[in-house]
């Protein structure tokens, strides 16, 4: 790790990088923004913006469960709960004729409320309120391998999921007629999104996590002409906004997550006029 | 679909008469019923679909046409048999089904080109890593068959109804299917687009001897292009040549007594 730090100091002789927490934050952003840039494309194509928002909210319950179980590190219960929650919402969505909006809303509200009820017992919620906004500067050296793993796993899964998801987003019946397990694909995708949301929620925050997923892809749509351009532009936007947002927040002394999302929004509106009519 | 063909029972006299008419293959639907939420959607459907023929499925809304298609695609549970047979009456080893869906309610603003869409279906390589020259060629060949090769780089969402159907047909034909299912393929198509679409289908039928099953509300198209017509209302109530079905009492009852009331 020290080697990486030394290399960063050599290659990037900026004053803000003199602090280890800034180095860690930068590395975390380099690792995690491409993940959201990738996943966002299909979340937008499959009209799942609301769904991923619900997953972000369920992080509260994940943490709450960890607290009840008396665990120091809540990552495991969060991951398990996130995955189960994603599977449950998808299952109900697939087996009910109710509109997806309503179902997701019910699950989203339930998980927020349950999380709040548990975490606010005895007025202790202040301890967890950082979850709402997140703090990328709190990334430590120990977190980085997990983020690297996430990037590798998501990229690998994406290679298998992308084509089926693309076909399913056009027409599920058609996709099935070509031998695609559309339901399994949907489960795979939602679980993947859930895991990434849970892993990064501490640094991005419940309130902003969905923006990080949706905005780069939405902005990329304004420019891209094909699927390849769509994905890579989305990754690039997330990446560039992530790094610039971090630097901006350092000099403005403000929340990094918010600065990143604000930049993504800016890119979205700037690219809007270039949209294909 | 694959490997689902079952051993053939002793053919009834009617079936053997039909067998001699078709030398390559046919699909036999035998006592097929679909039930959902305790409601019978289609009941005791019996029909044969022959290679080299265009079989049109007609009926009013809710007659069970789409349900039957979904059963043929094995996308819903059903009771009864669907048998794929060779000319000798033996179960066909593999049956490829090409499917052109009815309406596409996808996101038209998605930056997915026609080539992306075809490549995603034809190749395992994730489209975001680029489309290989081989897949590109394959997609080009597919589009050539429906005279739509000029559409390859257009966004899927920017195509007209007719163009989109040609692209979907091109995909359904790759790899070459034994059974081609067209679910109301011409909704949202203008007169010229419609005519040339069916001419393409007709051409394919003659050249490739595939079985084509068409669901359509356009009785004029059915009259002109179908070799056999199956009239449905919960079950098959009439089938045969277009002349025969269109002249039948059942046809009169289903279409004209209703339209008379409008």
Summarize the helices and strands and which ones pair or pack.
The complex is a heterodimer of chains A (277) and B (262).
Chain A: H1 2-11, H2 20-45, H3 49-68, H4 75-95, H5 100-119, H6 130-133, H7 144-170, H8 172-177, H9 182-204, H10 209-223, H11 227-252, H12 256-271
Helix pairs in contact in A: 2-7, 2-9, 2-10, 2-11, 3-4, 3-5, 3-9, 3-10, 4-9, 7-9, 10-11, 10-12, 11-12
Chain B: H1 13-21, E1 25-36, E2 39-50, E3 54-58, H2 65-72, E4 79-86, E5 97-100, H3 114-122, H4 133-145, H5 161-172, E6 179-183, H6 191-208, E7 211-215, H7 219-225, E8 228-232, E9 236-240, H8 242-246, H9 249-261
Parallel strand pairs in B: 3-7, 3-8, 5-6, 6-7
Antiparallel strand pairs in B: 1-2, 1-4, 8-9
Description:
The complex is a heterodimer of chains A (277) and B (262). Chain A has 277 residues and is mainly alpha-helical. Chain A has a single domain (2-274), classed as ABC transporter involved in vitamin B12 uptake, BtuC, CATH 1.10.3470. Chain A is 77% helix and 0% strand. Chain A is built from 12 helices and no strands. The longest helix of chain A is centred in the middle third of the chain and has 27 residues, at 144-170. The relative contact order of chain A is 0.16. Chain B has a domain at 104-175. In chain B, 36% of the residues lie in helices and 23% in strands. In chain B, strand 8 and strand 9 form a beta hairpin. In chain B, helix 3 (114-122) packs across helix 4 and helix 4 crosses helix 5. Classes of the chains: A mainly alpha (277), B alpha/beta (262). Chains A and B meet through helix 7, helix 8 and helix 11 of A and strand 5 and helix 3 of B.
């Amino acid at each position: 790790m020290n080697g990486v730090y030394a290399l960063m100091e050599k290659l990037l002789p900026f004053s803000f990088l003199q602090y280890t927490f800034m180095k860690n934050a930068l590395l975390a952003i380099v690792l995690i923004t491409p993940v959201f840039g990738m996943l966002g494309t299909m979340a937008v194509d499959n009209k799942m913006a609301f769904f991923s928002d619900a997953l972000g909210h369920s992080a509260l319950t994940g943490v709450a469960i960890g607290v009840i179980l008396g665990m120091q590190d809540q990552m495991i219960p969060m991951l398990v709960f996130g995955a189960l929650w994603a599977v449950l919402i998808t299952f109900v969505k697939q087996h009910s004729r109710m509109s997806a909006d309503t179902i997701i809303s019910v699950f989203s509200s339930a998980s927020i409320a349950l999380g709040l009820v548990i975490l606010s017992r005895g007025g202790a919620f202040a301890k967890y309120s950082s979850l709402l906004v997140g703090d990328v500067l709190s990334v430590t050296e120990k977190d980085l391998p997990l983020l690297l793993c996430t990037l590798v796993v998501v990229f690998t899964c994406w290679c298998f999921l992308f084509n089926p998801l693309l076909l399913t987003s056009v027409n599920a019946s058609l996709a099935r007629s070509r031998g695609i397990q559309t339901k399994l694909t949907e489960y795979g995708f939602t679980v993947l999104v859930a895991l990434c949301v849970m892993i990064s929620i501490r640094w991005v925050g419940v309130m902003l996590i969905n923006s990080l997923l949706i905005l780069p892809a939405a902005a990329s749509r304004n420019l891209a002409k094909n699927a390849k351009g769509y994905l890579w532009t989305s990754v690039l936007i997330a990446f560039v906004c992530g790094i610039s947002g971090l630097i901006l927040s350092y000099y403005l002394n403000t929340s990094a997550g918010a600065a990143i999302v604000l930049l993504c929004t800016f890119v979205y509106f700037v690219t809007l006029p270039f949209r294909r009519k | 679909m694959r490997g689902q063909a079952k051993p053939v029972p002793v053919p009834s006299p009617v079936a053997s008469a039909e067998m001699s008419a078709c030398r390559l293959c046919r699909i036999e639907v035998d006592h097929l019923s679909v039930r959902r939420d305790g409601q019978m959607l289609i009941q005791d459907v019996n029909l044969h679909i022959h290679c080299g023929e265009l079989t049109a499925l007609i009926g009013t809304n809710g007659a069970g046409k789409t349900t039957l298609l979904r059963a043929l695609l094995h996308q819903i549970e059903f009771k009864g048999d669907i048998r794929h047979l060779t000319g000798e009456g033996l179960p066909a080893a593999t049956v490829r089904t090409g499917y052109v869906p009815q309406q596409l309610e996808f996101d038209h603003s998605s930056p997915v080109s026609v080539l992306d869409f075809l490549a995603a279906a034809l190749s395992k390589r994730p489209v975001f890593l680029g489309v290989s020259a081989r897949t590109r060629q394959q997609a080009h060949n597919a589009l050539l068959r429906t005279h739509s090769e000029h559409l390859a780089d257009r966004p899927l969402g920017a195509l007209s109804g007719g163009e989109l159907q040609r692209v979907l047909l091109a995909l359904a034909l790759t790899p070459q299917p034994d059974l081609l299912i067209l679910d109301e393929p011409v909704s949202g198509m203008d007169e010229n687009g419609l005519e040339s679409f069916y001419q393409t289908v007709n051409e394919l039928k003659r050249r490739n001897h595939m079985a084509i099953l068409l669901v359509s509300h356009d009785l004029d198209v059915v009259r002109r292009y179908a070799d056999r017509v199956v009239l449905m209302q919960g079950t098959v109530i009439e089938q045969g040549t277009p002349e025969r079905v269109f002249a039948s009492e059942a046809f009169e009852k289903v279409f004209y007594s209703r339209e008379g009331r409008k």
